[in-house]
Amino acid sequence: VLGLRRGLDLARNAEAAGLRVVAICDADQARLDASGASPDIALYTDFDQLLQHPADAVVLANHFHQHAPFAIAALDAGRDVLSEITACMTGAEAVALVRAVERSDRVYMLAENWQFTAYNQEMRRLALAGEIGKFLYGEAEYVHPMSAATHNDYSPGANHWRNWIPATYYCTHSLGPLMYVTDTWPAAVNGFVVAADPEDPQQQATPRVNDTASVIMVRNRDGSLCKLLQYGLRGEGLYTRVHGNLGMMENLREGDQARLRVKKESFDDPEGRGYERVYTPPLPPAPVNAEGSGHAGADLFVSLAFADAVTTRRPAFFDVHRAVTMSMVGIQAWRSALRDGAPEPVPDLREEAARAEFENDHWSPDPAAAAEGQPPTGVSGNQTRMSVGPRLFQAK
Ligand SMILES: NC(=O)c1ccc[n+]([C@@H]2O[C@H](COP(=O)([O-])OP(=O)(O)OC[C@H]3O[C@@H](n4cnc5c(N)ncnc54)[C@H](O)[C@@H]3O)[C@@H](O)[C@H]2O)c1
């Protein structure tokens, strides 16, 4: 396991899912010291050493924007890979990752978790059973505001990824549930941004140079449409809503958000009555109790899905193709947002022609890749930190 913040959750859940953790790695010695790892687990500060350690699989929970090169190295070293989000930061990385999976005989899975909440799993079950008919329109929200104190604790240093990733890039927690429930595939996006807010006292006490939130309109290959909302607006909550040509389902936004509402019109009901059902679906049965595993019980199901993929050698739902597609939605939506919402295609990298188009696309907002032609991290450019930085340091 690489990266001992989120990685400790993934390690704990891997063990709960029947996998054995044999080695952990973090460049930060203090994180290793505080890990509480049992003496039979090897500790490393260097990823190359971790890769030397005999193991079947590597779990990547290093920084958000650095997964693809580590995943490719692990696949080339013969390891199965469970990668935290996001899969890749550029089109070139997406193509390289797909090719690395294909030239290995290894499993690659993205550790997106929110589709495994009880209500999202129930929605998938109902969708597969035909409850809402053909999928037409969906919307999903991952609204997760943070106080400045929490943000700064999670994001040490001005160059930490949470301080600069553009507002469209963290889109898998909204898109993942929609793809999982409906089996749809994005084809094109329009991106819009709620800009950084100079009057927000919480934002002002951070060194952020990105925006508040984004809205992404996704046109799917099956003709359906999705709307995604992500990140730092006030009003914490996660939401999934799907409309089909025979009904609608959504989790509730008020009170207990784990409740599901399923609505069918009278004219679509064979009994002619129609109905509105509101109930709290349970998590599906699991070999161990999922409740306390993290993120409303969803986290255990990530590890169970990975354990299943590595033992059966069958691709996980979020295999490399869906993984890079989700990342490309965030990347292409940023291109779109910088062009005032103009449509951008989401390539289908299962096809060689699409790979050829994107294999040299190194367009990246990563400050470490700064060069002429690279995009800014905020819709108003990269200047935000100039105004907020001094206030951060006063606040600290
Ligand atoms: N799915 C979820 O609900 C969820 C929740 C939190 C975080 N995450 C994801 O987990 C990942 C990690 O985020 P985070 O919040 O844990 O923190 P983070 O990015 O701040 O920490 C990453 C850790 O990895 C270590 N690290 C990074 N590169 C390394 C390298 N080359 N060698 C050794 N150690 C290295 C760092 O020292 C640090 O301890 C991100 O991709 C994030 O998106 C997902």
General description of the model:
Mean pLDDT is 95; it is low at 383-396. The chain has helices at 6-16, 29-33, 47-52, 67-76, 91-103, 118-128, 148-154, 172-182, 201-204, 298-312, 320-338, 352-358, 384-395; strands at residues 23-25, 42-44, 57-60, 80-83, 108-110, 135-143, 186-194, 213-220, 225-231, 237-244, 247-251, 260-264, 275-279, 344-345. The radius of gyration is 21 Å and the shape is globular. Helix content is 33%, strand content 19%. The chain is of the alpha/beta class and 396 residues long. The strands form three sheets. It has a nine-stranded mixed β-sheet. A three-stranded parallel β-sheet has the order 3-4-5, sandwiched between helices. Strands 1-2 form a two-stranded parallel ribbon. The protein starts with 5 loop residues before the first helix and ends with a helix. It has 13 helices and 14 strands. The structure holds nicotinamide-adenine-dinucleotide. Residues 2-6, 25-28, 31, 47, 61-64, 84-85, 113, 154, 295 line the site of nicotinamide-adenine-dinucleotide (NAD).
Per-chain topology:
Blueprint: H1 6-16, E1 23-25, H2 29-33, E2 42-44, H3 47-52, E3 57-60, H4 67-76, E4 80-83, H5 91-103, E5 108-110, H6 118-128, E6 135-143, H7 148-154, H8 172-182, E7 186-194, H9 201-204, E8 213-220, E9 225-231, E10 237-244, E11 247-251, E12 260-264, E13 275-279, H10 298-312, H11 320-338, E14 344-345, H12 352-358, H13 384-395
Parallel strand pairs: 1-2, 3-4, 4-5, 6-9
Antiparallel strand pairs: 6-10, 7-8, 7-14, 8-9, 10-11, 11-12, 12-13
Helix pairs in contact: 1-10, 4-5, 5-11, 6-8
The protein binds nicotinamide-adenine-dinucleotide.
